[in-house]
Design brief:
With 321 residues, chain A is α/β, with parallel strands linked by helices. Helices cover 42% and strands 15% of the residues of chain A.
């Protein structure tokens, strides 16, 4: 049996990523209803706002057991966010950034399933050693924050699968059933999709931002800000400013100053496409519509089945000879 | 029937990449014998040396029809290399760098199958329009020369498959049968593997270089020299020099001066692991032995079959529910 389905109370081994400003209660609930893991992205939320989104999510689904929270361990509020999540009855926590040791023991004691995001096989092993139940291995093509070694999903997944015994969820560059079949071929037990769920009716991304994502082409994103923390951005006026600074070999401080405060909120939530920071993955290039989650999930599953069905065995090739 | 097997007189839809200093007549012949496309890498060869390698390849295989030449259109000698290849009876030419329009018509008139290497869906379309019979779509994780848009194989392949009707061969980040199954899931009709064939008994890479490749880890390569032409390198002392210059925001001219002449030859052929330029792909991390091509190809096919066999259909997941 599929290792992720054994671990989580979901029907299909798909995780809707918990993205800042994008993954609120509405999106998470729609995902839970569709049979996959619905993740609220706590990174952009105060504990109070997180509480609000979790209550909203619970009110919109008959499957609250399929709800999870993604907590990037970047801020002082991490402990409070964990507390709010546990009090809301959330039993599945995804941690990212920082050490998997920071909160895994405490979360396991509270009865949670814990998954940590990794961009290297070495960190994946540390996640397993820290007691995590699964790892989400995210490649270079992913949107938003990214690893420093620039390892792509295609190369990362087999290494992580080899490094750990716990289930591996592939993330980065997956936006349809074909990508899902590719990830499973590499030994993943599940996939996490971000940009694909950003471009749904239920995501809380601004309509302008959604529109830009579905119009994206193959060269529309780039990994930037490597001196601060690598982040994959859609190319817009803000990106051009970052690029110009980087070409001048600007310092980390200058980049942080340009970033300022609220750029991500400005772009992703408020829809200011020129001055805002717009995080998206390379897969934006193949995302071209705005379905409901209810329409999207069965479509991905059909594409997956079709991709698997189309794979022929070596003996088929040998018939020609 | 598999589109690449229809196009080429090979048994399995695998191309052994034509790598500078690595892919000589011996390697190409061993590949042809194993049922795949054996490619001589002309990039590092004078027309006379190319002639020598083609004669050698033909003398070592009963399947000269499975031999091809990779000609990077970077040098003045391109036309001479084409002439030498045609005179040696080669009927399959892979062109890379430069425009697919440059030589495709002439090669088609000479009765050749022509494939061009691309790193974007837009260029893939131009290849098709220029009359190419197939495209080799190569992602960011590939070793050596690389595209400027940093599109990974996982994201690139579906876009190229959508952009053209001719067969698409996936390259970059593929080193075993699992990666091959992933590429086919994405719609590729074949795969090209470079670093995996570098680490074989028959490749002409220096033993020191081969050893370094099989000892590589997940973070052992990086895409460098973006101001000149992006190239993925193994990290060694030469890489550290490039990195130091780039961190100082060195000009293109300074980088070209550091590169100088003969660095690739020094590293890859002569085995100077500190001063030489060592081109390899991210997949070096999972390449860990030095088999003969005769051992390697059946192993890849077994892994591919195993990966395909292990993929379950959606209905299997639904049984749990």
């Amino acid at each position: 049996m599929n290792a992720l389905l054994k671990l989580l109370p979901i029907k299909y081994p798909i995780i809707q990523a918990g993205m800042v400003y994008v993954s609120g209660g509405k999106l998470a609930a729609a995902s839970a209803e569709a049979g996959i893991l619905g993740v609220v992205g706590a990174g952009s939320m105060s504990p109070d706002l997180l509480k609000h989104h979790l209550e909203k999510a619970k009110s919109l689904t008959r499957h609250p057991e399929r709800l999870a929270v993604n907590i990037p361990q970047l801020y002082e509020k991490t402990s409070e966010q964990i507390e709010v999540s546990l009090r809301a009855g959330i039993k599945i926590i995804i941690t990212s950034a920082g050490s998997p040791k920071a909160h895994t023991t405490e979360l396991k004691k509270a009865g949670c399933v814990v998954m940590h995001v990794t961009s290297t096989p070495e960190l994946a092993k540390k996640c397993e050693d820290a007691g995590c139940d699964a790892v989400i291995a995210e490649g270079f093509e992913a949107g938003g924050h990214n690893g420093r070694d620039e390892i792509t999903t295609l190369v990362l997944i087999p290494q992580v699968v080899k490094a750990v015994k716990i289930p591996v969820i592939a993330a980065g560059g997956i936006g349809d059933g074909k990508g899902m079949a590719a990830a499973f071929s590499l030994g993943a037990s599940g996939v996490q999709m971000g940009t694909r769920f950003l471009a749904t009716q239920e995501s809380s991304a601004h309509e302008n931002f959604k529109k830009l994502v579905i119009e994206s082409r193959s060269d529309s994103t780039m990994l930037m800000m490597k001196k601060v923390v690598p982040v994959r951005l859609l190319k817009n006026a803000f990106y051009e400013e970052v690029k110009a600074l980087e070409e001048k070999n600007a310092s980390k401080e200058e980049l942080v100053a340009l970033l300022g405060k609220g750029r991500a909120r400005l772009g992703m939530l408020e829809g200011n496409l020129s001055e805002g920071e717009l995080e998206a993955g390379q897969i934006a290039a193949i995302v071209s519509d705005l379905p409901t989650v209810k329409e999207l999930v069965p479509r991905i599953l059909r594409e997956y089945d079709e991709a698997v069905k189309n794979l022929v065995r070596v003996s088929e090739w040998e018939k020609k000879a």
